[in-house]
Write a structure and sequence with these properties.
heterodimer, A: 87 residues, mainly alpha, 2 helices, 64% helix, elongated, B: 203 residues
Chain lengths: 87, 203
């Protein structure tokens, strides 16, 4: 969601239909203790889940890369070793 | 990225925009600026979620989710509107989506039984002539609780949140004239219930 004012965001110029309910303008609920902590915990859990999901995707890719590099070294490395030995 | 809990910054000293900038540029896990923003806006968001959803039980979960979405959306917030306006839009979208999922489009149906029966609703009188702030809050709670979704939601979006008629029509997916009519009827009903309560509270 962006904060750009879309076409529907322009201030409406039409007149009010009836007086606004002034009591609602600043109406709030008393704060519940620990609310900010619960929001932080929720954010923490999602960050952790996101990290785990990234890792779950990254780990198999990393294993594959390592496996291919081992294979590459096996086939590509032998002549080098022979060359090294000849020298 | 890990999240650490640290003490909030002093809330009074910094405007929202400065806190948003600090929250965006904070080190991973430094939640202090965002926690200050939560503390500053949680009362209004929670009240709004309660009366948009019509459920006191769900209000806190909804408010919590609104702040979580705001946190993950901060990177995309460009400051073209105020933080309060952006927060208001996130909150309204989330609560209305919640209602749509939970009730389908029925919550906007003026012919629903709750809306038709609403003319006869009366709220419990408080029984005090000089209302304290707390009693006034409870009175408003009970009046809003007695209103049907189809009238309460547009009224809350207009008179509590300050959305324009156009914005409300867009959010609810109904026509502009229907929006105006619902807000007008919602105000009439609110005043009628309020007057009924005051009459009931007279000795």
């Amino acid at each position: 969601m962006t904060d750009s004012p879309g076409p529907h965001m322009h201030e409406d110029s039409t007149a009010e239909l009836g007086e606004p309910i002034l009591e609602l303008a600043d109406f709030t609920e008393p704060p519940r203790p620990g609310f900010a902590g619960r929001v932080q915990n929720s954010i923490h859990r999602r960050v952790l889940a996101s990290d785990l999901a990234d890792y779950a995707w990254f780990a198999p890719v990393r294993i594959l890369v390592e496996y291919l590099s081992v294979l590459f070294e096996l086939f590509d490395g032998k002549p080098k070793q022979r060359g090294d030995g000849a020298a | 990225m890990s999240v650490r809990s640290e003490p909030p910054l002093p809330a009074e000293s910094l405007p929202d925009e400065e806190l948003v900038a600090r929250a965006k540029n904070a080190r991973p896990g430094d939640m202090r600026a965002f926690t200050t923003l939560i503390g500053r806006h949680q009362d209004g968001v929670q009240a709004n979620c309660r009366y948009l959803s019509g459920s006191a039980a769900d209000a806190e979960d909804l408010a919590q989710e609104v702040f979580v979405r705001v946190f993950f959306g901060l990177k995309r917030f460009e400051g073209r509107s105020s933080f309060r306006t952006w927060l208001r839009t996130v909150k309204a979208n989330h609560c209305i989506n919640y209602l749509k999922k939970r009730k389908g489009a029925a919550f906007l149906d003026l012919d629903a039984p709750a809306a038709r029966a609403s003319d006869g609703l009366r709220v419990q009188p408080v029984g005090e002539k000089d209302l304290t702030r707390e009693a006034q809050r409870k009175r408003i709670q009970s009046i809003l609780g007695a209103m049907p979704d189809s009238l309460r939601i547009p009224l809350v979006l207009r008179d509590m949140d300050g959305f324009s008629y156009d914005e409300i029509a867009h959010e609810l997916g109904i026509g502009l004239s229907a929006t105006k009519m619902r807000i007008k009827r919602g105000r009439e009903m609110f005043r009628s219930l309020h007057a009924g309560e005051e009459a009931g509270a007279q000795p």
